[in-house]
Amino acid sequence: MARNHTLGKLLSTQSDTHRPDVIKPSGTFSRSGALGSVARSLGDLKAKANEAEKLEEKLRDGTHVIEIDPSIVDPSFLPDRLAVSDDTFQSLRSAIAERGQLSPILVRPSQSTSGRYQVAFGHRRWRACLELGIPVKAVVKDLSDADLLIAQGQENSQRTDLSFLERALFATKLEAQGYGRDVAMAALGVDKTELSRLISVARALSDEIVAFLGRCSTIGRKRWLEFADALKSPGGQKRCIKFVQETSEHFSDDEKRFKAALSAAVGSKTSPAIGVEEEALLWESPGKDVLVKAEIGIRKGKIDIRSEKSTEFVSFLLEKLPQLYSEFSVPKKNIQ
Predict the structure, then answer these.
(1) pLDDT (tens digit per residue) in 11-34
(2) Structural domain harbouring 139
């Protein structure tokens, strides 16, 4: 009886232990063999997919700086700089070589080639890294063409490293590409009046004159407007182009080069290194009772009449002005 009871207990215990609803896979089995390998692979792939998705999201938001091979980066489709030798670029290149790239550039994924990027701003930093053969630090962000141009223009406007001429040429490029004035104003950070001035100056300049002048970074808006007026005057454009084509003089800086071109457009008799205004012109009547002194500037002129008859003579001139202006305007229309 006791032996049967003991056997019964043993069988009962074994039965309870191996009931189907409490059977669990072996921990060793779940970590080894074919099924374990597949499970681990799927887990790794999911983790990598999540990491890639998070990285892609960061790149889209422009909140993550990465290093990119500069050889797979292209410049903006609308350049805003003149391709001229620039000492400041060499200084930037040397600084990056010594201390590294301190601020990232902004790029977008290429619209035409998978795996490439396009610069929105930071062209000189990208070029310096390309020449040095080092990765370029960049923020990657999805940008439309208009967004890229606005970002490009605003960054350069804030850094004030574009000359007035480069800004003017960039404005006309935007216009030629069919972008509205609102895009141009946002890109350059200017109002309608200033944008009109920029476009007016750029339209007055031929490609030959631009190539001769270069960036002219020291020349401000007022003098560019004077130059544009001089080019628009009768014969101004032809005189300036003729000078550019024929001069063999080497100008050591922007200032002298600009003055020389401006003097040619105006037709100045003074040396471009001294000034751009003509020497005073004198006229004296045959009886030497009337002396007229005239000074001709770029945007204004001055006539000084000295005579005992000055009051009568000035009144006479004022009466004749409509006729004189009409005669002056006739050859101007013929030229056009």
Answers:
(1) 344 444 444 454 444 444 445 555
(2) 52-159
